[in-house]
Design brief:
Layout: E1 2-6, H1 10-21, E2 25-30, H2 36-39, E3 44-47, H3 51-63, E4 68-70, H4 79-88, E5 92-95, H5 101-117, E6 124-131, H6 141-153, E7 158-161, E8 168-175, E9 182-188, E10 193-199, H7 204-217, E11 222-224, H8 226-230
Parallel strand pairs: 1-2, 1-3, 3-4, 4-5, 5-11, 6-8, 7-8
Antiparallel strand pairs: 6-9, 9-10
The structure holds NADPH dihydro-nicotinamide-adenine-dinucleotide phosphate (NDP) and the ligand O=C(O)C1=N[C@H](C(=O)O)C[C@H](O)C1.
Binding site for NAD(+): 31, 71-73, 96-99
EC number: 1.17.1.8
Protein name: 4-hydroxy-tetrahydrodipicolinate reductase
Length: 233
Amino acid sequence: MKIALLGYGKMGKMIEQTAISRNHEIIAKIDNEFTAGDIKNADVAIDFSIPSAAFNNITTCFKNGIPVISGTTGWLDKYDEAIACCKKNNGAFIYASNFSLGVNIFFQLNAYLAQMMSGLKEYQIGMEEIHHTQKLDAPSGTAITLAEGIIKNTSKTGWKLDHAGEHEIPIVAKRIENVPGTHSIRYSSKVDDIEITHTAHNREGFALGAVIAAEWIIGKTGIFDMKDVLNLR
Ligand SMILES: NC(=O)C1=CN([C@@H]2O[C@H](COP(=O)(O)OP(=O)(O)OC[C@H]3O[C@@H](n4cnc5c(N)ncnc54)[C@H](OP(=O)(O)O)[C@@H]3O)[C@@H](O)[C@H]2O)C=CC1
Ligand SMILES: O=C(O)C1=N[C@H](C(=O)O)C[C@H](O)C1
């Protein structure tokens, strides 16, 4: 598989290592604006760039018939527009706020726990995410996906950073040197706490998930997610 890496930072470099170890070829390493010519030989593009560049990168690929795996977070105000562009060009797309197998299992666990807790008024919910200090967005994309899983299964209607209203999930975002990504959801009552946590030890799980998604999407058309790739439905 010939891969164009859109974003050659911490994740782009990790994905390169993983892809090569699985016998794929990196045909472009892009850290800035690019033209169709730069990516024309790619079977698939993997975008781990920056929030302000993701939409343009992704839609350029669709317009040039290249399937896209998108891991960049913080650009989802333009998600619907990206989907419309993908459909118009008969393209193929997977966005995931987190590509690791562990977090995708954690998403299911979070939804199940939220369902169990939904009627229990004595428990107050709270979420915390911790990431390295270079992270541009807050809360993390993973925290937003977790909040959406809780909203779907409880009477909560939204989320907010720090001071949330009664019907919102409060999210605390901490930035600490070198932390790859930790997410916790806590249900607290006067007598006890129930807490689930996912801790990434490094970026290898994110990279492997993205490469597996790229392998999976070849030859397909449509909009998919990691539940499709990992058979978690
Ligand atoms: N979904 C998931 O599983 C995961 C998602 N992420 C997300 O992936 C993104 C990247 O993370 P990370 O690698 O740690 O960040 P880095 O800052 O290390 O890398 C981002 C790279 O994108 C480059 N860049 C800047 N502008 C463009 C452009 N127009 N087109 C392509 N690349 C560009 C930057 O170049 P320069 O430095 O020169 O500006 C930089 O090299 C973030 O949004 C992060 O939240 C991260 C881990 C897992
Ligand atoms: O920026 C990061 O590093 C990460 N970003 C993703 C997110 O915003 O959830 C995934 C992972 O937590 C690492």
